[in-house]
Protein 1
Amino acid sequence: MNQNAQPDRAKILIVDDNPVNVSLLERILRHEYDLRSAYDGSVALKLIAEQLPDLILLDVMMPGMTGFEVMQILKDDPVTADIPVIFITALDEGKNEAQGLDLGAVDYIHKPFDIILTRLRIRNQIELKQQRNLLKAQKMALEETLSRVKLLEGIISICMYCKQIRNDQQTWQQLEQYISEHSEAKFSHGICPACAEIHFSQYHLEDHAGQGKK
C-alpha cells in the first residue's frame, strides 16, 4: 500500500502479519509519511528491493519468517544494511529486545501502541536518517571535489636559465603552462618593479631625450 506518495516525505515500510496493527499504524502515520505495508517477511523483502524505505517498522513474531530473520537478511546486504529498523512487538522480555538491538535495530515499539510515543520514536529515527543522508551527500561532494584537484608534489626539474620545466614526457614546458596543467591555478600577467626598471628604463630615457630636442 502506498498512500499519497510525495517525493519530499520520508518512506516507511510497515511489516506485521496482523492487519489490525498495520491499519492502526497507518492511521497514526499517514499524514506525515509515505507508507507501504507487508504482512510477511518475504513480501517485505520484495518491496524493499523495489524501493528502499527510510525506515522499517518490523514485527518480531510472524509466521514463516520472523522479524529477526528478516533483519539478519537486511544486515547481510550492503544495499539495505543501513536502513534503520524499529521492531514492533508484544513481547516484554529484555532478552528479546537485546537480541533485536544486537542485530542492529535502532529501537523498539511495544504493543498496544502508545500513539504519542510511537510518533516520537519514529520521528526521531527519521530525523537521524535524514542527517546521515545529508552528511553522506556532503562527504561524496567533498570527495568529488578533491578528486578534481591536481597537486604538485615531488621534485620538479626546472631550467636554471629560462625557467622551463621538464614534464612527465621528458619535454620542456613554460612554467605557467606546466602549473596550469597540474593544478587549478590560473595566470594573469603583470610586471614587477625590478623588471620594469630593466626593460623599460631605456625607453623612458629615450622618450625624455626626444622631448628635449623639440
Protein 2
Amino acid sequence: MTIPNIITIARLIAVPVVVLLLIDGSFGWAFGLFLAAGISDGVDGAIARHVPGQASELGRLLDPVADKALLVSIFVVLAVEGHVPVWLTVLVVSRDVLIVGGVILSWGANKPVPIVPLPISKANTAAQIAYAAITLGDLGLAWRLEQFVDIMGWLVAVLTVLSAAAYLKGWLRYMQG
C-alpha cells in the first residue's frame, strides 16, 4: 500500500460524505471537501510521479475511479436537488457509461481496448471539475455566479459530447481493426 493509494482511497471515502453534505444543504462544507479532494488528487499524483516506489498499477486504476465517483456523485445529487440541469447530468453520466460499456464489451470480445485518456477527455474533465467547483462555491459561499455557471454548463455539455464522440470513434476503429 503506497502513500498515493492511501490518499486516493481517502478520496473515495470522501464521496459519500460529500453526498451527505449536499443532501443536507451544507454546500460550503461540500465545497471545502471537494477542494480538499482536488488538492489531494494533485498531491497523490505528484508523489506517485516523483517518489521512487510510490507509483502502482492499483493507483493507476483507482485514481480515475475516485475522480469519476466524486464528480458523478456531485452532478447526480445537484441535479436531483435542482441545482444542476438534469439533461447535463444525463449527458455527463451517459458518456461515462458509454466508455465503461465499451471497455467491458472489448474485454468480452477478447480484445481489451487500451485505456488512454484523450486530450479532449482531459479538457472535458477539467471543465467538469471547474463547473462542479463553481456551482458548489456559488451555492455554499453565495458567489453570485449564476451566469458563469450557465456558461460553464454549456461548455461541459459541448466537451462531453465531443469527448464521447472521440472515444466512440476510436473504439469502433479499434474493434474493427
